[in-house]
Amino acid sequence: MSDAEIGSNKRIPKLEGVRGVLAVGVLVFHVAWQSGVTNFMDQPGNGIWGHLADGLTVMLPPFFVLSGLFLYRPFARAVITGTRGPAVGDFLFRRGLRILPAYWLVVVVALLAVNLQGINSAWDVIRPLLALHFFIPADQPGIALQHTWTVPTELTFYLALPLLAWLAVKFAGTAADAAVRARRATIPAVILLVIGLAWVAYTNNPSFTGPYELWFWPFYYVSAFACGMWLAVATAKAEVTGIASGILRSAARHPNLYWLGALAIYLLNIPKPFGTPGDGTVGGMTQELVGHCLILVFAMLFIIPLAVPEARSRLMDVTLANAPLRYLGRISYGIYLWHVPFQNFFVENGNVFGKTPVIDAMLRGSASFWPLVTFTLVGSVVAATLSYYLLEQPLVRAWNKRSQRRRAAVTEATAEPKVPAGT
């Protein structure tokens, strides 16, 4: 995920910090589930704390919203200004370089330390390395890799983004007015939103008989990317035309009200009045759709005031722009990747402990919350730090240096030759 500030190359402290909050929130949710604190189907959790932990499902979609915002924005700006967008090849390589090396490291560790005894062919190794393990899940040894469905989801969005940008260009056509081009640039986002909601309804329909892995296909959360894409167009339009939408103006004037609204949505998402999601009933489908829409609203209320440069909030600065959270935000991708393997290490689940690994549901409640969350958080932060500074950043810096040399060479080659003085 990009660290670039909207309209500049600087880092926004608040947007660094928010990724730290989200990563730790996802970690706490998974630890709470593993330790039996949360409610799960017919298994009651730990009273009010279980319900509050249930509500932390809102912490994942904002990551996808941020991806949609930052990654679609350069394309949206190009559509609005009528200029050429980012080079597709360079964009895809950069995104792959940012997300794949750290992911491959986690896959190798999880396969060797947890799943080695279950590997029966090279295909069992190739599938997760190519991020195909949720598309082709049959007999895939994937303990400690259950959460990595987000990687193929992100990769699919990266691959689709140039096509979506091309569609935006086609929809914008030759319209002379930038505001008109901006409105038309949101059409791909609307299409994705509809696809996402339709997929949620399809996979939760009582007549659905497909594999549960379809819940983890990119279509399930493509609606969150769509929300980020809309925000990308809105902020790019405001920068280009100087005319901000009513939502952005409102967020600039009352940023804390947006967070208050996000808190209300978080609390509203906790009770499940229509049914149990995933139980194969009409009530379960209704509840999943309602919950899905609520977490999208939460994500937008949470992110919008952070994406508006004019928004000023002491509360947001204090809670998000402090050094510890900014650091956690910087390594948030690694925290996300490593926290589930460390949960499995704590409960000694895997061949490295001389045991055949089992699915996490069979170990639910086998560890207390506080020891598990402490071990998982410390281990994930250490592993993420090492991955960030020894693997991810060196590769990114090497690529940036190569790109700078290449651009310098192109500039020198295309520059007009200097005429010697006196000739």
From TrEMBL:
Gene Ontology cellular-component annotations: membrane
Keywords assigned: Membrane, Transmembrane, Transmembrane helix
Keyword Nucleus: no
Any single GO BP term: lipopolysaccharide biosynthetic process
Domain Acyltransferase: 14-387
GO molecular function: acyltransferase activity, transferring groups other than amino-acyl groups
Name used for this protein in its record: Peptidoglycan/LPS O-acetylase OafA/YrhL
Organism of origin: Sphaerisporangium rubeum
Lineage: Bacteria, Bacillati, Actinomycetota, Actinomycetes, Streptosporangiales
